[in-house]
Amino acid sequence: xxxxLGKANSIFNQFLGELRDESQHHDRLRFRNNLQRLGEIFxxxxxxxxxxxxxxxxxxxxxxxxxxxxxxxxxxxxxRAGVPFHSGFLNYFDRSDSAFVSAFRKRLANDEDFxxxxxxxxxxxxxxxxxxxxDPMLATGxxxxxxxRDLIKKGKPKNIHIAAVLATKEGIDNVRKNLPPNTKxxxxxxxxxxxxxxxxxxxxxxxxxxxxxxK
Length: 215
Hints:
Elements: E1 2-4, H1 12-20, H2 28-47, E2 52-59, E3 62-69, E4 74-79, H3 82-92, E5 98-107, E6 114-122, E7 130-134, E8 137-138, H4 142-151, E9 159-168, H5 169-178, E10 183-191, E11 193-194, E12 200-201, H6 207-212
Parallel strand pairs: 1-10, 4-5, 4-7, 7-9, 8-9, 9-10
Antiparallel strand pairs: 2-3, 5-6, 11-12
Helix pairs in contact: 1-2, 2-3
């Protein structure tokens, strides 16, 4: 199942449009803040898909029964571009545990291709948990597949949610082939093309560089 949040008319597209807008790319603070804002909106939308339980709440004047989350999801992010996006999720899922994975593209000799290497992973137990993997860009999907394979060393999640600001059909198809059927996709928009260096077009550029400076 694919949820494309940018298809609906909402303030979501204001923040996404500013991320794409080259004329605003000099403002790293605004770029990071917009990633965080989108993370909050994604978190709210994904929260509708989680399991809830009835809980009695005592107020100063009485008692009320409310539907509350039965389990907070584990939030996994891919360093470094995913950090501000993850922060937005954590603002809403404030009782969640977090996982961090360092995955990077290693360019090959011809500079037209690359391999993805996972260098570091820190995660809580994932057995039976709701897992949200947060990465702003889902281009080829290679990084996401390797990140998932590393994370499940910590247990088999109940459900997997892939959250990306921008994705390509190629990336989604690749992840679908390699992740289990209980995987759901939450994306801001699906763009049509990839460059020879596997950057999304029209995309928004390099989210990590635009957040923190060139590597």
